[in-house]
Amino acid sequence: MHEQEWDQVANTFEEQIFNVPANDHRGLINQAVERFASRDAVATDLGCGVGRTLPLLAGHFGRVHAVDVSSACLAVAEEACRSHDNIRYVHADLARDRRGYPQADLVLCINTWLNADPAMRMGIVRNTCQSVKRGGHLVLVVPALGSALLTTLRQVQLNQRMGMDPAKAERQALPEGPAWAHGLVPIDGVPTKHFMAEELEALLGERGFVVEEVEKLEYGWDTEFTDPPAWMGAPYPWDWFLVARRAR
Q1: CA 131/CA 246 separation, integer angstroms
Q2: What whole-number distance in Å separates Cα of residue 91 and Cα of residue 175?
Q3: In CATH, what number is assigned to the domain containing residue 198?
Q4: Using one digit for the tens of pLDDT, what is the confidence trace for 165-210?
């Protein structure tokens, strides 16, 4: 999505955009923020949207930079967080040259590396990494390619239980085209970048980061299916949750 499209969903953001922090039932995001918290430190939320995690950051860091491509989303965030006077709001396109906010001790980046265009996505990756001070940390959440494959498997199983023959069950569940080989999986019809854990480690390692933690941030099957059947239990769908330190 581009700036104008994000502007258009600003007032319905909570209804339309999946809320990762609210569904982080293990509290991985909160635990990471608390681990690196300091009133002498600076935190940045890159792609902050309407500010779901800004109160958390503002409560644990001396200064917070809320950065987003959408001025309309920033306006909603500023109104929602008006009781916090240590947040600075920055309108910036993360795919372009980084400007308007300094490097931070902690950068939180939740489902911002999604763009299907590789040039734009790599611009966002580059600017995310450059936003972290040397010795600072990146807390990253991205869609998992393995989770998308697991969801496809569950759809095949569901199709078969509904009476489809195995070949038809697979054809109906699998999207067409070679995009999956590049980690591009449709979400609500929009090609969306999904990652392997090894891919993330390689991307960050090339940019001077040491990955310290990789976890599955798991969700219920109701995030993938309407009224999932009771037999559809573990393993569950997930995003990758990653913590990395900038070493150089």
Answers
A1: 10
A2: 36
A3: 3.40.50.150
A4: 989 988 888 766 667 888 999 888 889 999 999 999 999 999 999 9
